């Protein structure tokens, strides 16, 4: 899913107000109103890279699902989130370190790996997501690189979902569906004249729409990454990590 880098640094320094994953973590940790919804959001964001790490580390499909579910359940049951502070770094790194420790304990029989673990959890058995995650296992790579690559892909998927949500009217949806392939194919609009005719637009209008869509997609990717950071100054480095993970 090549998106390309922005034409100027301005594309990456533009600021939007977004709810960070750190604020979601604090909501879960404090057990206040909205904690359950916050947990759902965290699980949706982070279970795919954890699942890929577990699979690449040698677990079967079902064991990987059990391990991820057990890890998240245990994380909450043991209130391990109490020790998490934004100043300790990126939550992505904290999560991977904690998951490695959990898998080691699980292998020694010290951790409950069964789903649920006595804590009510959202379902992590998304067949469509498991399908594309399993495809990530076709290339030989370390569990750590598989984790980073799955994270990058999940960030892009989330951004694409948000972009689709911004094109809800029938004309917008038709245009988005027609141009979406170029977002995942190096930014090229194929059969531009044919596409323009099918949408009742000029080739020039298609080109303008495609440029705007690419820019908005990049902005949403940046926003997704920023949500995982405690310090906005880390954005440039984390974006670099995302592109490197995807290459």
Describe this structure in words.
It is a single chain. This protein is mostly helical. The chain has one domain (17-246). Helices cover 65% and strands 0% of the residues. The model is unreliable at 1-18 and 116-120 (pLDDT under 50).
Provide a quick synopsis of the model.
The protein is mainly alpha-helical and 247 residues long. The protein is built from eleven helices and no strands.
Spell out the key features of this protein.
247 residues; mainly alpha
Per DSSP, what share of the residues sits in E-state strands of 2 or more residues?
A: under 5%
Characterize the largest beta sheet: strand count, sense, and whether it forms a barrel.
none
Whole-number tally of structural domains: 1
Measured on Cα atoms, how large is the radius of gyration? 20 Å
Q: Share of helix among residues?
A: 55-70%
Order of helices and strands: HHHHHHHHHHH
Given as residue ranges, the uncertain stretches (5+ residues, pLDDT < 50) are 1-18, 116-120
Which descriptor suits the 3D outline? elongated
What structural category arises from helix and sheet content? Answer: mainly alpha
Give the helix/strand layout:
Layout: H1 10-13, H2 21-30, H3 35-56, H4 61-77, H5 91-107, H6 127-135, H7 143-165, H8 170-183, H9 192-199, H10 203-226, H11 235-246
Helix pairs in contact: 2-3, 3-4, 3-6, 3-7, 7-10, 7-11, 8-10, 9-10
């Amino acid at each position: 899913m090549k998106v390309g880098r922005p034409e100027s640094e301005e594309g990456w320094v533009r600021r939007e107000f977004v709810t960070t994953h750190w604020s979601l973590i604090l909501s879960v940790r404090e057990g206040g109103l909205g904690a359950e919804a916050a947990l759902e959001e965290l699980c949706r964001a982070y279970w795919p890279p954890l699942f890929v790490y577990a699979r690449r580390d040698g677990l079967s499909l079902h064991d990987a699902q059990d391990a991820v579910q057990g890890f998240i359940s245990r994380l909450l049951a043991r209130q391990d989130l109490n020790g998490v502070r934004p100043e300790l770094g990126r939550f992505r790194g904290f999560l991977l370190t904690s998951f490695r420790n959990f898998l080691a304990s699980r292998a020694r029989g010290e951790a409950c790996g069964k789903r649920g673990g006595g804590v009510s959890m959202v379902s992590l058995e998304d067949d469509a997501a498991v399908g594309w995650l399993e495809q990530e296992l076709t290339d030989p790579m370390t569990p750590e690189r598989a984790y980073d690559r799955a994270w990058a892909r999940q960030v892009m998927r989330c951004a694409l979902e948000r972009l689709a949500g911004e094109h809800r009217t029938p004309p917008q949806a038709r245009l988005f569906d027609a141009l979406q392939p170029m977002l995942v194919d190096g930014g090229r609009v194929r059969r531009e004249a044919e596409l323009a005719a099918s949408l009742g637009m000029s080739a020039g209008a298609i080109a303008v729409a495609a440029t705007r869509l690419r820019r908005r997609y990049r902005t949403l990717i940046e926003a997704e990454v920023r949500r995982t950071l405690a310090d906005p100054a880390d954005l440039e480095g984390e974006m670099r990590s995302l592109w490197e993970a995807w290459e």
